[in-house]
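Sanity check

After download, print the first record. It should look like this:
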Amino acid sequence: MSSTAVILLIIAALSLYLTYGIQDGWRRRYRQRQQKQRQQLELYRLRRQGDILKLWLRHPHGQLLPKAKPGQHLQLFSQDQQGQPLSRAYSLVSDCQQQRYYMLAIKIEAGGKLTPLLAERLSQGQMLTCSYPKGHFGPAVSLQNLLARLSQQPLKATPLVLVAGGIGITPLLPMINSALRQRRPVTLVYQARRRIDLLQHRKLRRFAAKTQLQYLPVLSQPDGNWPGRHGRITAAEVAQPGGKQAEYLICASAEMVLTLEQGLADLGCHKVRHELFSAAHSTQSFAITLGTAQANSLGHSSVLDALLASGVKVPYDCRGGSCGACALRIVSGDCSNVLQSEFSVGADEVLTCCVQATSALQLAFPYGAADAAADEDEQYPSPSATLPVIDYRQA
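Expected structure tokens:
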């Protein structure tokens, strides 16, 4: 390739990179306006695989759905048996290139608050209230990868290594589709208990046989017929396909993420990001105070969970760091982040769904208590309520 062609290629890549950044900024501002808006979608297909519930959702009038990005999730809204509002975030499993339907794969937790109700109540044709696609967990946009795409030389793109633990596979599946379209080298290391727990195992094997995907499933409790790896994934196994230059994305339990991140760092792999749907429960006992209300951190996965368990009235919505509704001001004390947040708050504020107390903690609302109470009434529209009408073509 001549020097002139290389220069033109670099200019084109820079233009594409800047255009992407501007468009992404516009999209983020638009999505922020959608944070408190809901959409009602039809559950047109329902399947169960072991303890995994698969949902296919579409627009009730056949319209195209808002565009989603690999790694994003939907927030589902429901009510418990006492009529109290419940909401949880579930990653999109469907290929984000199409907008005809969303697919979710939900693990039914025996002690969960929402998933047992979903397994019991859901039926085909039902209308579900959910958020618009949101979240920023996904591969980084790099100039090197854009140049590789423009030059049609995928081997020069940064290798992508995806690591899933159990149901953590869900946000990674759309990323695989996207990477394969870009002809980017991609490896999936997938830890599960049993063969039946491997979501889309046959499809992934077909992809691995026909594309540049390297698929490495590992079972911790295999049966006698399992021909593959068994045991626990190690950082050395994860680092082997991509080396120090690869980009690593991990979605798994808090313990697995912590172990792998530390191991990868020791091996010189520093381009590592992760996503957790929930953090491990705190083993420390610290008093948490909000006004005159009291709570304790012990046994709870976040400050928000501790407050809610003690009956403290605080506004919240997504419980995943994407909406900002649960932000509180720190008056005194310390806390640590246990979930990655995609919502910016003030220097003295925290998203209570994303942190655990590391000392006695005194909190206050970042605005008047009366305003907070008023906002709380607006957090949860009824599933049958009239929802704001959004132009889907702009999403």
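If your output differs, re-run the checksum step. Summary of this record's structure: The CA atoms of residues 96 and 253 lie 25 Å apart.
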